[in-house]
């Protein structure tokens, strides 16, 4: 057997294994707790930016575990199911490529949710907090990988519609919270 044939016998199984792992990684639906293992949410911070045809409008609010709306909002977020992008591991390994895989500018419609930032806080009980972030931008989802310092893309069936609807409901909640203040 030639050296070339031996190399093929080694490389082919390695490539097939990598392909299998990549497909398993990207095709399996994941939830918040898969993306953010061992997270125990004590606080949710929400920032919504909406295009208005003119200047953007923004609203924000914070929910603590003891707030009456907290369980409802957390439950809604726990229902979300994503698929990881095949580019995620590449971006984690080579963070300089993060900007290459970002989609750039987007065309906004009037009164469309442009950005939705959802921060999750966990009180570690020692005066420190663990923070995680889920983000939506017009029609794309991502989450912040603080360990690698990058935003990783997520995919979702009907992601734009779900993000817009979630953003709109949180927008209304933010308005209600501001009115009651």
Helix and strand arrangement:
Elements: H1 3-27, H2 32-35, E1 43-50, E2 57-64, H3 70-78, E3 83-84, H4 88-93, H5 98-101, E4 113-123, E5 129-137, E6 140-145, E7 150-155, H6 159-179
Antiparallel strand pairs: 1-2, 1-4, 3-7, 4-5, 5-6, 6-7
What letter string, H or E per element, gives the SSE order?
A: HHEEHEHHEEEEH
Question: What Rg is obtained from the alpha carbons, in whole angstroms?
Answer: 20 Å
Q: How does the helix and strand content classify structurally?
A: alpha+beta
Write down the overall geometry.
globular
The mean pLDDT is: 80
How far apart the termini lie comes to 79 Å
Question: What is the total number of structural domains?
Answer: 2
Q: Count the E strands.
A: 7
General description of the model:
This protein is of the alpha+beta class and 181 residues long. The protein has two domains: 1-29; 31-179. The protein is 38% helix and 28% strand. A seven-stranded antiparallel sheet has the order 2-1-4-5-6-7-3. A hairpin with a 4-residue loop joins strand 6 and strand 7. The longest helix has 25 residues, at 3-27. It is globular and about 80 Å long.
